[in-house]
Amino acid sequence: MLHVVGRVTEPVARFIGPTLGLLHAEGMAQELMMLEGPALPLLRASLPAGTTLHPVRADDGRRAWLRLRAAVAQRLSRGGVDAVHFHGVQPWLASVTARPPAPPVFLSPHGSHLLGALPLLVALLRQRPTLVATSDRESARLQRLGLIAPASHPVLEDLYLHTAQQASSVPTVVAGSYVASRAALSLFTRVSVLLAEAQPGLAFEWLGQVAVGGAAELDAAGIAHQHSAAPDRIADALGRAWLFLALTPDPRTPLLLAQAMASGTACIALNTPSHSALIRHGHNGLLVRDDASLKAAVCGLLDHPERRQALGEQARADALRLFGPGQLQRGLLAAYAMAPWARPERFGVPHDAPMTPVPRAD
Fold this sequence. Notes:
Blueprint: E1 2-5, H1 10-25, E2 31-35, H2 40-46, E3 52-56, H3 62-77, E4 84-87, H4 89-95, E5 105-108, H5 118-125, E6 130-131, H6 136-144, H7 158-161, E7 172-177, H8 182-198, E8 203-208, H9 214-220, E9 224-226, H10 231-240, E10 243-246, H11 255-262, E11 266-270, H12 273-276, E12 286-288, H13 291-302, H14 305-323, H15 325-336
Parallel strand pairs: 1-2, 1-4, 2-3, 4-5, 5-6, 7-8, 7-10, 8-9, 10-11, 11-12
Helix pairs in contact: 1-2, 1-15, 8-13, 11-14
């Protein structure tokens, strides 16, 4: 199996690593071809033994995609590739005309900005990749576009799913995102100032990406922040947190929110489609609309530890159901079992399992 990736983001890296690990456990030889970038060390560290890595230089825009296309064509020309899984619409689009003809192709959009154009691209290029969505929301959107795609969420590390919650002695409110968002960061700084006035003694911390100019804003508000995306650092911060705030309206699966849920941390999220796909208000977290409702929700949970604990425990249970290894097996491996070279029973999928590829445009 050859996996082809464009510019790797944190969510994509954390989807691909467990995917390759699962296929490695099934005895499948794998290769990973990707454009170089900041997430390469993170992805390299998560690769299973025996994975062949093909980094492609990515320092000059459009030419990087041409180099990726040439690298894919060169690798396919040597033979020995049973299937190709493109992670992102752009790497698929850049490589779709590579010669020789590619073996069976799988495509995971990963929230690509080209997702809406996918039906037109499929029709124009007359290609039939088997789509594998990386969230229920992405799967539903593809279905509305007339494309069939089983959903397969990112798998969370055991580090999050099975670590005991040990809240800090200092009430700590944590927010963050793997996607840089100045709007989310500014909302957190505004609310932190209001909360500090209402409840002195609170500590605040921002995790993940910091938007351009955001570090100074965080420092001015007295908010600690770390740029490290190492799982142990993120898990430690979430385990110490009294509350996690999801404030970034990311159209993809909000990975940091999922990790906070898995850590057993009570979560409050802006009421966006991606957040409401994970948070059921009052059941495993709270959904809010604006600054005022966010402040009220935070104060309410800080004052009621039993409620905070109950929401955190339910969030962890739901995260295990949604993001545990079994979910990946049901979605991803069911899709892989469609390939001509696969024996469906090898992946725990019945011979007659109903799976439908993208229809070809005639």
